[in-house]
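Q: Sequence in, structure out?
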Amino acid sequence: MRRPVWPAIGRELRKPVAGIPLGWLLLFLASANLMLAMPSLDLAASGWFYTPGEGFAALGSTWERFFYHSVEVLMIAGNLTLVGLWLLNRRRQRRGRSALLGLDGRRLSLLLLLLALVPGLLVNQVLKEHWGRARPIQVTEFGGDRPFTPAFVYTGASGGSFCSGHVAAAAYLAAVAHLLAGPRSVWFALATLYTLLVGLARMAAGGHFASDVATAVFLVLLGYLLLKRLFYPPELRPADPPR
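A: Exactly. Output:
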């Protein structure tokens, strides 16, 4: 009797490579190759939000501005809340009480390091500042004066399209919800939905291509999985947080 194939494939995809499950790495590489092989997908996706003679109609609209500025507010408020909750939990633990959401020093360090390394350093300081990809609103296909270049193609020119700092920050909030509340929690579902809406708003405003949005999410996801593996090797995996 032949053994089922799919369970074996699933086990292989879950095997970590440098701390990251093989399946996620393969999915990221597949999406990157698709972006390079079919760059017209970026133009087609941005074209949904562009009207000749009018430009990107959503730019400056109430809902677009809301999602643009809400990221900054949530980042400040969210991280101050994390630090405050950690201080509260230290007092609770000295009194023999459990930590709320399981937020101890190790988890706080993981989250702040993720924020600093991926949205902060990799996305905003390295890629956005130096990659040089023109934004949709800047390229000739949408009324600008800059040439369109596919994702992952370095130009060195000015342009901060690749990749999205706002989406990376929103995805970081989803990582916070995943770690503290769990993957099946309402908080993680809301944070994931919020990340998608921020990406949609940035595309609708002509600020980023779909590949910029997808890459930002992937980078935060891979960084989160790697740091989680480093902070919590198999023998130190955190217990499920209280629901």
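Residues 62-94 form the longest helix (33 residues).
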